[in-house]
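re: ur question from yesterday

yeah so i grabbed the chain u mentioned. its 337 aa long if i counted rite. heres the sequnce exactly as i have it in my notes:
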Amino acid sequence: MFKTKAWFVAAMVTVIASAYSYSSNAKELVVAAASNPGGLAVFVAQDKGFFAKNGVDVKVEIRNTGSALSKGLRAGEFDFAPAAFTNLPAALERGLNVRGIVGYVGAAYEKMTADKVVALIASKASGINSVSDLKGKKVGVTFGSTADAWLLQALKEVNLTRNDLERVNTRPPSLVSVLDTGGVDAIVGWEPFNYRALKKIPGSKIVKRGGDLVCFCAYLHGNPDRVYKDEAATQKFVDSIAEAAAYVRNPANRNEVAEIGTRFVNMTKEEVLSGLDFWVYDPRIGANTAKAFSGAVDLLIEQKKMKKKYDPAKYLETKFILSTMKRHPEWFADLGK
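ran it thru and got these structure tokens back, copy pasting raw so excuse formatting
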């Protein structure tokens, strides 16, 4: 009896020691996400335990704007954060030193442009029925955002320029209220703000959605010190995001994913569900990703926000996600080639 007790105690000590060793060896990381459905892969990875399952201890931080995400990364508040292709290259040209390691949102792996999450919404009183009708009107849009880049391309399609209307710089959370109060005639936004506007403002309507004008895509990136200092931890992080993205894409998980979203950001379940119809959660990096990046560079040069071309290979680091794809093809089986 004594020997049995002694063996049991010794075994329990070993188990506890092993658990402690695993916990102490797990790499603690901080990842930032935006306060909209675009961050669902990050939210799900945390809520469903995919980070822990893959061996990383991760804290999630939420920020309201892209500039806040970039500022926090530069200040060392986060290890990884997302940024959109439509403004990131300009920061890289100015000296931002980061490596994109896994997709956050967007369909860049499959095509150069994908922007169904963006829409132009007009009030009933505006008389706006097409993009051409924007001439002489006020349009609320977040300057420097992908929606802003989309608007400029939409104007270009109908031979209008930014000088033909008044663009009103509006923070994303204020887009609905500024349209509702008549401060602008129309807004250009993304989900859930489009959904909110249509639900709240009687007579408001979508004038144009998407159209493959830009790539509404963003990638999670980190400083080279963080990405390469502990490549095992980086790989586990990328694995976690890829597994979570597959979970988000699975139609059987829609309701649960929507509920998870409401626990991380100020959205209703209906708002998250509406976004799932338009957001794309593809973590892969490939040849089209590089083309989408270069296309964004071309737009920024045209807008005089950049001076010259920027090699996407200096930003995109493919080896981590390629390793994930090789070891876990089941997480990508539902995606196009």
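noticed a couple things. The longest helix spans residues 2-25. also Confidence is low (pLDDT under 50) at residues 1-25.
anyway ttyl
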